[in-house]
Amino acid sequence: MIKRLKTLYPSLITEEESQSKGLYRWFMTPDNQLLGILEDEIKEKEHDLLDLLLTPYHGAYPPVTEREQSWYDWIFEGTNFIHTAPKEYRFIYFSLSEAPGDPNDFREAVYGMYSYKPVILFSSQKHGVIIEEERPDEEDAVTFFEMVEVFTSDFFIDVKFFIGPYLRDLSKAHDYHTWMDQQFHHIQHFNTKPVMTYVSAVPYLMTVMKDTAALMFLIESILKSTMKDEDLLHTIQTFLEANSNASLAAKEMYMHRNSLQYRIDKFVEKTEVDVKQFEGAIAVYLVLLLKRQIDLA
């Protein structure tokens, strides 16, 4: 059947080829094989016929807006660079315990948590990424634990989120997505938390990451613009090795406590990682040790 349909619809793809660009309509064959046909290739009078021959599939593979298509092409395929770039963006990956009955209901539930409609891309029936293109005000910030509760109570689906950092350089979005997606799959094997950030994931990731390029991406995601500020990084490492005791660290560095506190605040502002809290402290300390090791190699 698929070979015959392919002669009529050259754009036809199967589930394994579903990262091909384009807006597709999806169907399930009688032997439960998923296939998609480019919408523009289906004539109006052929829709009903295809619905009779095949079961319409309301899976969430195809993007539903032009903006989603642009992001899909760029981060999944590395093509069609997005020229109307947001000032900031970040990726929030999700994993569902089972496929939603209707992807549109899933989208509407996510939209309800935002003051605007974020981009939502599915990589499979149960995995995908939410792309935030603007940073919400503090009072409008999305609480992902609340979103977990919504899906559990309203859809009877368990969901896990992996929240990435905010970035500005859109040219790195493709590599950023590839890295984040790989790490999300890694941590799911031993993570029991429904919501994890890139900061809280550091101890887990360091046990599985071996590739130097991937490790450098981890370092850059944590340290951001402080990467080359060796004096500041030395100050933070000294502070952490003094059990986060500012007075003791200032004494060791022969500086006034207020000067040390200023440097700590400067680091937190630039990285958005709070080293005064356990989660941020352990992530930054491990990354600093990793950076020293790579620098000496």
Automatic annotation (TrEMBL):
* Domain PucR C-terminal helix-turn-helix residue range list: 232-289
Query: Which Pfam family would be a valid example here?
Result: HTH_30
Q: Which InterPro entries match?
A: CdaR-like_regulators (IPR051448), PucR_C-HTH_dom (IPR025736), PucR_C-HTH_sf (IPR042070)
Residues folding into a coiled coil are none
Q: What protein name applies here?
A: PucR C-terminal helix-turn-helix domain-containing protein
- Species of the source: Halolactibacillus miurensis
Phylogenetic placement of the source organism: Bacteria, Bacillati, Bacillota, Bacilli, Bacillales
